[in-house]
Amino acid sequence: MKKLLLIVFAICAITAHAHEGCEDTTHKQQVEKTSSTAEEKPFVYVEQMPQYPGGDVEMRKFIAKNLKYPESAQKNGIEGRVVIRFVVSKTGKTENVEVIRSLDPDCDKEAVRVISSMNDWRPGKHMGETVSVYFAVPITFTLGEEYKTKEIK
Fold first, then answer.
1. Which of 21, 24, 43, 152 is exposed most, by the fewest CB atoms within 10 A?
2. Nearest-CA neighbor of 135 among 45, 41, 8?
3. What is the bridge-based pairing of β-strands 124-126 and 129-131?
4. Treating both helix axes as pointing N-terminal to C-terminal, what angle do 105-116 and 55-66 enclose, rounded to 10 degrees?
């Protein structure tokens, strides 16, 4: 059976962590404003980012175990990275999953499927409040050597 090498790159939050711990009155007002409304706009960065159960290592294991390299992409020798952005809700659910860097329609669809099927996360917190937060994950599709050396028909 031919092996596929699937590399799942380290997780990257959609924002720089350099802002952690910064006091920003705009975000204070957003928390105060949105805590009383039914619909909350997700944060881009927060004091405590959402975390997958078991951390980044377990999230990469989950993705590697559940991601299926699309047959059409294998056949056509397609390799590269899909970047997925989603919201980790106040309840820890992955919502609004979308492709922000596309590779191939089938690879994009598979990456969205896997992220959408994730277990609940530990939600993010900002100023002591549980909040919804944007999060991004790059997923790299890489063919094994046996695919690179054979002629693609």
1. 21
2. 45
3. antiparallel
4. 130
